[in-house]
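Entry: Phosphodiester glycosidase domain-containing protein
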Amino acid sequence: MKYLAASIALLTLTACEQQPAGEPVARARIDGKTQPAPSPSPTPTETPTIASQVESACRSIIFEDTPLTHCLAIPSRHRIAMELGPDGEAPYRSLGALAKRRNARTIAFAMNGGMFDDEGKPIGYYVENSQRRKALNTADGAGNFHLKPNGVFFGSGDKWEVRATEDFLKNVTERPEFGTQSGPMLVIDGKIHPEITQNGPSRLIRNAVGVDDKGRAHFVITNAPLSFGRLARFYRDELNVKNALFLDGSVSSLWNPSTDRLDTGAPIGPIIVVERRSQSQ
């Protein structure tokens, strides 16, 4: 979405693999019911769906009374790419438009990823298929994007990172295969962004990404409004992620073919696509 022009005062503010050591964040489903037993395989008279055949990379959990969806991308299982729109055409502006163009069986999940202007084009650093479409944005200004430090989520092959913009500018010399800039950073080197309070008054549906010490990318989308502080704490305290980046709010959306989830809503901009690696690789 076009970045919010709200004042900083208002800004003070989801995995198939086993999670980091410790007690699970929650054992209940979002609706509070006991998790049901796995559904049996489709009978010959049923029409198989993607959701019945593919294990989900996302899980629903509760953190501090807020329902979240946590999706885990693992380098050995997934590849990550950015998509804005079909080549030579206008931006998709929705996950539904992307879904019409892609084979859902190859997609682990997709999520909006990065702030954008009125046309859906990125306002910060953006790299797609190793082609830089927008240079790094170091300008000052109002709104979430400019709440320094902001940062970049980027990577090539099976190495993915989140770095604060100044860190990226000083230390990343080779162009990555994908990259998207957003802001603010939620967690920087294990510490919560200095402008983010514990549980500020700004409450929205939000999404973010962080990369842990094992190189796994943790994507989170909230299923109810929450503060920047609570989202940052989830990354720092529960996921043990040292660097996490806020992706957007209000327009946050997720496509998870394995659960038939395809969010709709306000127009979006850049899209982070997490694809399944073929079993032969």
